[in-house]
Give the backbone structure.
Amino acid sequence: MGQEVETLISLLDDNDHEVLHAVTDELLKQGVTIIPKLEQAWESAIDQRLQERLENVIHNIQYVNTKEKLSRWVKDGAADIIEGASYIAQFQYPGVRVEDISHAIARISDDIYLSTQNHLSAIEKIRLLNYVVFEINNFSRNTANFYSPQNSYINQVIESRKGNPISLGIIYLAVAQKVGLPVYGVNLPKSFVLAYLNEFRQIDSKDKANDILFYINPYNKGTVLTRLEIDNFIVQQNLKPSPEYYEICDNKCIVLRLLTNLMIAYQKLGFDDKIKLLEDIARVLR
């Protein structure tokens, strides 16, 4: 198989368009396992045209991999936010493994001993969570390079400990849920926030917003917000009020926002080819 792949890669330099099309299709069928070989070929290539063709194959393999995995994630119920965020990371870093990201989240949550703190109020539990996430583990907002694509790749955020509102929110959300806290995402425009639900709410309650005890801003070290503060933010941002700005949203919605942030980052860098692929991936989440 190794020799066959190397032969296919060498044929990417062919001037015959039919040969090039057939070779590209065969390489795409190999999937993410051949990306290291493609990257090695790119590093050793002298011809710019060959490098561009190699880049095209790599990008398309990553695109297909991400789209297929996200489609399956959505079909299976999109239950694990870390799984969805990890698949977005695989668009740029195909070696990212869901289990590795999950283990990183588990290591953070190991510092939280809520099971022995049942006497704590909801606010006190969030203060403990904030201390572990932002003080012990040093997560913070990346104000120096806010629009960097790295802020939207969860593996990079875990490594650098810096992210944007949505990536920090995903990590905070995952840690909170890992230790059993009723914390969920809220699709508030221009500022992704989280909500802490009343643990004793009615399961069939129709007014989900009234089930929320308070809101949390993960981009500001877990600051607790009231509904009135959300009201004021909506007015300040000249947004038209909508019930969904106060209610919890599902994981599919959160990952779509992560993907949208990534597209904005690439737009600012002028990477139109990546944006087109990401726009197609986003359709899976809509």
User: Anything to note?
Assistant: The chain has a mean pLDDT of 90. The beta strands are 140-141, 162-163, 183-186, 193-197, 212-217, 223-225. The chain is about 55% helix and 10% strand.
